[in-house]
Amino acid sequence: MSTTAENWERFLDPEVVQPSLFLATMFITTFEILKDSIIDRIRNFYIPGFAETDPIFESEYQSEVLSRSKSRLYASLDWLLEHEALDETDLDTFENLKKIRNLLAHQLFNVVTGQTESDHASQFPVLVALLRKVEVWWVVNVEIPTNPDYEGKEIDEAGIVPGAVLSLQMLIEVASGNTQLLEHWRKMSVARNVGQASPVGQGSR
User: Fold this and answer.
1) Predicted TM-score of the model (pTM)
2) Are 134 and 85 a contacting pair, CB within 8 Å?
3) How far from chain centre, in Å, is Cα 55?
């Protein structure tokens, strides 16, 4: 059990607090990305952007998905379970990740200062893996089959990096202080602007 002096020592040490706070907030952020992926992927499947106001699409989404539970999240999880995108073990994993997320959200100060124990550090890779599993399922089972460019091609699932996972990786890099992505983006922007600029001196008599 930590003493009051030890807690203050930890709280006032930037080298302890910064990485602890960073990982805790990244866990919360990634869990929200996972929730959005679970819900939005299915909703967009039934209600494409161009059909937002079409009652037929809304009715199908209601009957096929929302009717499963009062919670949109758990209705979506049940849909993914039925379509074998997730299994029972994944659902148990999700519940554990949710408990950790709630602990961090409600007791962030105590966790960061070491007064409350949390498994978020060891479970962060598990969280990312579950996000990737959901996203890869959509890529393999929906996006690739409907894209003629991939017809007849062998797909290596292990090599797939879904957009949500790539965005998360970039967010982690930027939040951890890496400026290489920013520098690369600036160079690309300059190159595009130069390429789009009208040539000077053309058309002179």
Assistant:
1) 0.79
2) yes
3) 29
What's the angle, vertex CA 83, arms to CA 82 and CA 84, rounded to 5? 90
User: Helix (H, G, I), strand (E, B), or coil: what is residue 102?
Assistant: helix
Of 85, 84, 45, nearest to 65 (Cα)? 45
Q: 154 vs 117, 144, 149, 183, CA distance in Å?
A: 45, 11, 12, 35
- Tens of pLDDT along the chain (205 residues) come to 566 776 666 666 666 677 788 889 999 999 999 999 999 999 999 987 655 566 677 889 999 999 999 999 999 999 999 999 999 999 999 999 999 999 999 999 888 888 889 999 999 999 999 999 999 999 999 988 887 777 767 777 778 888 888 888 888 887 777 777 667 667 777 766 766 655 555 544 4
24 close to 117: Cβ distance less than 8 angstroms: no
Give the sign of the dihedral formed by CA 169, CA 96, CA 136, CA 31.
negative
To 10 degrees, what angle do helices 88-106 and 120-138 make? 130
Question: Is the sign of the CA dihedral 145, 141, 28, 119 positive or negative?
Answer: negative
Give, in order, the Cα–Cα distances in Å from 132 to each of 91, 167, 186: 15, 12, 29
The tokens 């002096």 sit on which residue?
5
Question: 121: helix, coil or strand?
Answer: helix
